[in-house]
Structures are given as C-alpha cells and as structure tokens.
TrEMBL record:
Its EC number is 2.7.7.108. Signal peptide: none annotated. Residues 238-263 are annotated as: Disordered. Keywords: ATP-binding, Nucleotide-binding, Nucleotidyltransferase, Transferase. InterPro entries: Fido (IPR003812), Fido-like_dom_sf (IPR036597). It catalyses: L-threonyl-[protein] + ATP = 3-O-(5'-adenylyl)-L-threonyl-[protein] + diphosphate; L-tyrosyl-[protein] + ATP = O-(5'-adenylyl)-L-tyrosyl-[protein] + diphosphate. This is protein adenylyltransferase. It comes from Agromyces neolithicus.
Amino acid sequence: MAEFKTWEDYQYPAPDEYTLRNKLGIRDFFELRELEYKMTAKRETQLRAGIYEVPRTFDADHVRAIHGHLFKDLYAWAGEFRVVNMRKPDNELPFVSPRNEGIERYLEEMKETIASHSWVGMDRDQFAFAAAKSFTVLNWAHPFREGNGRTSRIFMDHLAERAGFGLDRTRIDKDLWNASARDTRPRAPGAAPSFEPMVSVFKEMTTTREEASTVSVSHAIARSSILQASYPRAASAALTTPTSTQTRAAQSGPDKSVGLGRD
C-alpha cells in the first residue's frame, strides 16, 4: 500500500485524473464505472450463492474479505483500508480519519456492538435497533476508497441472516434512506454518530427468513442495487460529469486533503 499515500495516488494523472488506477489500465471514467459495476455484481452473485464464502466473523477481517472479493479484479487496494480522508457531498464532516488507526477503532467498536447482542431469537424491533447501531458505526468508518456501500450491504445481509431475517431495500425510498443516513452524522468533530435515525429504516426493510428465501440470488441483487448502501447518495449520483467545474471542485473537497468518494 506504500504507493497509495494521497488522494491523487489512487487516480491517474491528468487528463485522466477522475479515473481510479486499475488493473485493466482503463483510463476512461465512464467505461471503468460501467465495468466496475458489472464485475462487482458478478462477484456479489458468487457471495450470495455460496460459490465463494467469506468467514462471517463480523469484524474488520469480515469487512475486508467482502471488499477484497468484490474488487479484486480491478484494484490493487481491494480489501485494504483507505489511507486518505474522505467525505460525501452533503456531509459537513469527513468520515473517520485513517490516521492513528481511526478506521480500525471504529470497526473494533462495531465488532463489540455486534458481540454485545444475542442475535438469534431477536424480534423485528430488537433486530432493527441492533442493526442500526452496527451499520451506523460501519458507515462512518467508511473504510475503503471506493465500494463502501456495496460492502456494507452484503455485511448487513450477513448480519440479518444471523438473526434469522432478510433485508428488502426496495421497501425504503432512496431519499428516505439518504436522509436517515445523513442524520446519523456526528454533530461535532470527535463526537459519536447517532444511530437512532436508522432504526425505523431497518425495521421497515426487515423481512422474515421465509420471505427472504423466496427471492432468487439474481433477483435479490437487482432489487438491492436499486438502493445502494452508500451515504448520502447513490453511486451514480455522487459524481457528476468529469469535465464539469463542479466535479473538479468536489473531487478534492474544500480541503484538498479530503476527497469525495462514490461508493
């Protein structure tokens, strides 16, 4: 990871500075974006069908393993935590800083949160409460330079299965999801995120195991893709046309040390 020390290190130099460095050598932003979603969808199918298994340890290694499998065909840093600061367009504060093992501490908190609950036998309300707490910490860790939404979606599905539930994201309007996720933001630097806005969202998404089992793997992926678990907006909307002045400013954010991710 020594070659990835700054935001610019993840991207090609001008005139291709909006395209992530990738194993295929693609320098066109839109070509890479389209191929990325096709390739990660294939890898997601493998995970959901059990063709490829990741150890369900519900910790940092679990998160790394999901991301590593999804993106290993494209990025050298697949499964590796970001080393740069990052925020989203509607977020005044950046996600947790990778400095001083900030990401690792957040994921350790997530692990402890998950371990503190008895998932088997939960009712819907109990699950929604515990899932909201777990997701909010993971979301604000935002551990990867790209692909956090896709990774967290699979991770939360694994957690739901542990409790005997499924998650149907088509039950939630994407604007409601985005607004609720945005409302979890810390109110000041160093403050903890607030999970409460996500409780009702997870309660609405939660399905029984029987309901979840009636959906085929391919159909489940198509449905869940309607609502990317990327905060605060879907990946397709988080980055505008690369030639626009607006995007040039957004790529580095108001502070050039804080980049803007897609998920």
